[in-house]
User: Fold this.
Amino acid sequence: MSLSKVAAKAFMPSAVRTFASSAVARDVNITLHPQSFEAYKCDAPSLELTLKKEELVHMYNSMVTMRRMEMASDALYKAKLIRGFCHLCTGQEAVAVGMETALTEKDKIITAYRCHGFTYMRGGSITSILAELLGRKAGISGGKGGSMHMFTPNFFGGNGIVGAQVPLGAGIAFAQKYLGEKAATFALYGDGASNQGQVFEAYNMAKLWDLPCVFVCENNRYGMGTAANRSSANTSYFKRGDYIPGVKVNGMDVLAVHQAVAYAKEWTVSGKGPLLLEMETYRYGGHSMSDPGTTYRTREEIQHMRSNNDPITGLKQRMLDFGVVTEEELKAIDKAARAEVDKAVEESKASPEPDVDQLFTQIYIKGTEVPHIRGREPEEGIRF
Assistant:
C-alpha cells in the first residue's frame, strides 16, 4: 500500500453517534474506515466499536503526553545529557496507546528498544523514564540508572539484540498457558527484525503448542535506513506467519489499533492459538538520534505523513467533529501535558547519578557470587 493511500484511509469520515441521558455525551458508537483492517486466514475485526467519552479523552491525553515526552528526550539528547543510543517513537503513539487501552494488567508486552511509550502506558512515570535515559538513580530500572532495560511486572523490554524479544515473548506466553492464566503476551518487533530466523522459530513453537501469543510487527517502513521493500521479499508481514492467521492494521489510527488488539486477545485466550498483527505505522524521526532520517527518504514524504496521517491530529479531529470535547478542553489537556513533562524533566535532571558500586549489583543470584570479577585490565578487579 502506498504512503498516500495509508494517509488517506485514516482521515476519511467514519460514522460516530453519541448517546447520553444528560447534556454530556458518554457513549460513542464508532464505525471505522473499511480499510482499517486486512485479514489473512481469519475474519477481520469488526468495524463497529463503542467507547466512552472518558476513554477517548484518555487516549488523546496519553498520546499527547507521550509525544511531549519524546520531544523532551530529543532535546535532552541534543543537550548531550542523554548519551549513546536513543530511539524515539514520535509518530507511532497510536500503537502503544491503542494496545494498552485494550489490555489488562495480566497481559504482557515485550518489545525492543523503541519502548519509552510502552513503558509509560504500562505505568512507568515520565520522571522514571527520562531519568533512566539520563542514567540517574530515579531511573525505572530499580533505581540503578542505565539504558531503559526495564523489567516491571507487566512489561518486559529493552532487548538490544534485533528480534531477540520475540522467542522470549513466546516463552512468556508458554508460562501463561502452563499456569492456566486467561491472558495473552504481545511480542513486538519491527519490519527490520522480521527476517530474523528466531522470529520464525518462535512462530513454529507458538503454533505447535497453541500459545496465547500475539506477534506484532510494527512496520514503520524503514529498518534503520533501509526501506522495507529493499530488505524483505514479502512485505505483507501479517501473512508471513504462514500457518498463523494475521491482520494488517492501520497503525496510525488509535481506534483501529484498540479494536484489533481486543480482537487478538480474544482470539488467543479462547484457545485458537497465536495471531500475527502488522501495525502499519510511521516514525517521523530517524532510526535513532544519530540518524537524521532524511538520507533515505524525502522531507516531503515525512511532512506528508505528519500533515495527513498524524495519530494525535486524527483523534482530535474526530472528537471535535462529533462533539465529544471542545477545543478549549483539548487545549487544557495539551497545556497540562506540557507542564507535566517539563516538571518531569527537571526532576530527572535533579536526580543524582547512581553510586559506582551499583555497577556490580544484580550480576549473580545471592549466594552464587564468584569471589572476584576481572576489570578492564588483568590487575584491575572487584572482590565481593
Observations:
- The first helix runs from residue 3 to 11.
- The chain is about 40% helix and 15% strand.
- Residues 19-24, 143-157 have pLDDT under 50 and may be disordered.
